[in-house]
């Protein structure tokens, strides 16, 4: 009985899949907050290289992966697809559960798939320094790794609560040569404004993004790199789903249900978009797509679909997305990568079209699922990935109740080896389920920008 479906390096995808080619209606455009008008490529040039700006708006179905990027991908790609036979047995379910394991990358998650591509295009454009934010530390580690390979300076604003929870992530980023600054910091106007208001601020991705963007805007040789949300980031992640398609062919299966966690939407898009594209093109009809988020930061399930800023300091353009309001600071749950007030415009658009089902879980049930997964499959998931594990287990239990065998595919987007404090706290009974604060969200949403 086969467990692992592996591909040789020559089977790695040579092009990323761009879902914008197959959308029934185009994703709403990005607006310049000063004018309320659609943003122009030149508006974005102070932050991103032109190659990435072009990818952001491209409607080409396939975008070639540059050979230098492919050659770095080969360090860990193609990643394995596993059949979770022991988990299936433990659940006593008729479902078949497969998971794509992105934790084999050097940084331990899917994030290097885009970090390497972004570093490459920035280096080609003559950029010397990249600034960024990180929540869980996975994205910061990925960009620090990519920066080391392309000889780029990397400056990471790390959400303060994550910096406290994950000192070893910081050490990893510094080992790759990056500079790590807990956010909010005194180094930027954006950080100082937050600290003046609340010196005890635990930080948020929105605040850290504001700091990183401010630094990039003030330095001609620096650009900003975002680890999720934007179309080009989701595009780079599609290598995950493209490989999974070939691997499931080898297994003689096709997924009925695809599950992934959603912070900004990139690992979800990575595994889901190639399959969703097939559905949009009418090549198959029945696959369901489940996006799982934490109840503490329920962007898709409780947020408003509106134009909002990507950061708290309001330095970014306006994007149409599900949002909890750019000033919302989610509770300090351990799934730091899921603590973002917004969501990728592409994912939000597809939720609005009824093509993706959003779902929210509290963190304790996700840790319980992660521990069950570790005890059956041996891999300890990142706290973010636990949300996908929980979603997949729930779908498998539903199959058991209904007596139906369905094929479930989920993305195990990262390992939890740098997240052990969260497991220590979980086992000691110190973790709590934090619901979102309705009043705080209402306040943050009241501050949404007015767009005519
Ligand atoms: C392991 C892991 N999973 C998921 C996420 C959420 O991001 P996204 O929704 O873009 O995949 C993060 C973000 O930092 C992460 O580190």
TrEMBL record:
Documented EC number(s): 4.2.1.20
Pathway assigned in UniProt: Amino-acid biosynthesis; L-tryptophan biosynthesis; L-tryptophan from chorismate: step 5/5
GO MF term (any one): L-serine hydro-lyase (adding indole, L-tryptophan-forming) activity
One Pfam family recorded for the sequence: PALP
Main enzyme class: lyase
GO cellular component: cytoplasm
Listed InterPro entries: Trp_synth_b-like, Trp_synth_b_CS, Trp_synth_beta, Trp_synth_beta/beta-like, TrpB-like_PALP, TrpB-like_PALP_sf
Domain Tryptophan synthase beta chain-like PALP: 75-414
Cofactor(s) required, per the database record: pyridoxal 5'-phosphate
Sites of N6-(pyridoxal phosphate)lysine modification: 111
Reaction(s) catalysed by this chain's protein: (1S,2R)-1-C-(indol-3-yl)glycerol 3-phosphate + L-serine = D-glyceraldehyde 3-phosphate + L-tryptophan + H2O
Taxonomic superkingdom: Bacteria
Keywords of this entry: Amino-acid biosynthesis, Aromatic amino acid biosynthesis, Lyase, Pyridoxal phosphate, Tryptophan biosynthesis
CDD domains the UniProt entry points to: Trp-synth_B
Function: The beta subunit is responsible for the synthesis of L-tryptophan from indole and L-serine.
UniProt record similarity statement: Belongs to the TrpB family.
Subunit structure: Tetramer of two alpha and two beta chains.
Protein name: Tryptophan synthase beta chain
Organism: Coleofasciculus chthonoplastes PCC 7420
């Amino acid at each position: 009985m086969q467990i692992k479906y592996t591909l040789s390096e020559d089977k790695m995808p040579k092009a990323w899949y761009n879902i914008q080619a197959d959308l029934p209606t185009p994703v709403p455009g990005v607006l310049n907050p000063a004018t309320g008008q659609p943003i122009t490529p030149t508006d974005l040039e102070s932050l991103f290289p032109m190659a990435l700006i072009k990818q952001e708006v491209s409607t080409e179905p396939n975008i070639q992966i540059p050979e230098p990027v492919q050659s770095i991908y080969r360090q860990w790609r193609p990643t394995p697809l596993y059949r979770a036979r022991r988990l299936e047995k433990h659940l006593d379910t008729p479902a078949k559960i497969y998971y794509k394991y992105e934790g084999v990358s050097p940084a331990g998650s899917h994030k290097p798939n885009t970090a390497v591509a972004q570093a490459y295009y920035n280096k080609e454009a003559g950029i010397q320094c990249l600034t960024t934010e990180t929540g869980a530390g996975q994205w910061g580690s990925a960009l620090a790794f990519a920066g080391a390979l392309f000889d780029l300076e990397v400056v990471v604003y790390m959400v303060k609560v994550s910096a406290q929870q994950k000192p070893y992530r910081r050490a990893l980023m510094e080992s790759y040569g990056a500079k790590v600054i807990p956010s909010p910091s005194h180094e930027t106007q954006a950080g100082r404004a937050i600290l003046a208001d609340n010196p005890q601020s635990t930080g948020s991705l929105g605040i850290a993004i504001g700091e990183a963007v401010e630094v990039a805007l003030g330095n001609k040789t620096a650009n900003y790199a975002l680890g999720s949300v934007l179309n080009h980031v989701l595009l780079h992640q599609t290598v995950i789903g493209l490989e999974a398609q070939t691997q499931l062919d080898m297994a003689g299966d096709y997924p009925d249900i695809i599950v992934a966690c959603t912070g900004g939407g990139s690992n979800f898009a990575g595994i889901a978009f190639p399959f969703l594209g097939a559905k949009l093109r009418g090549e198959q009809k029945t696959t369901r797509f489940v996006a799982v988020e934490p109840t503490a930061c329920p962007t898709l399930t409780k947020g408003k679909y509106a134009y909002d800023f990507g950061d708290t300091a309001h330095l970014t353009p306006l994007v149409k997305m599900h949002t909890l309001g750019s000033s919302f600071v989610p509770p300090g749950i351990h799934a730091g990568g899921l603590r973002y007030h917004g969501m990728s415009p592409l994912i939000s658009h597809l939720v609005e079209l009824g093509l993706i089902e959003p779902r929210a879980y509290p963190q304790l049930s996700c840790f319980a699922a992660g521990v069950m997964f570790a005890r059956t499959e041996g891999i300890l998931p990142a706290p973010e990935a636990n949300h996908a594990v929980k979603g997949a287990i729930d779908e498998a239990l539903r199959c058991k109740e209904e007596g139906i065998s369905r094929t479930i595919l989920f993305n195990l987007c990262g390992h939890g080896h740098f997240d052990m404090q969260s497991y220590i706290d979980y086992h000691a009974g110190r973790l709590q389920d934090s619901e979102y604060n309705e009043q705080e969200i209402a306040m943050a949403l009241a501050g949404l920008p007015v767009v005519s």
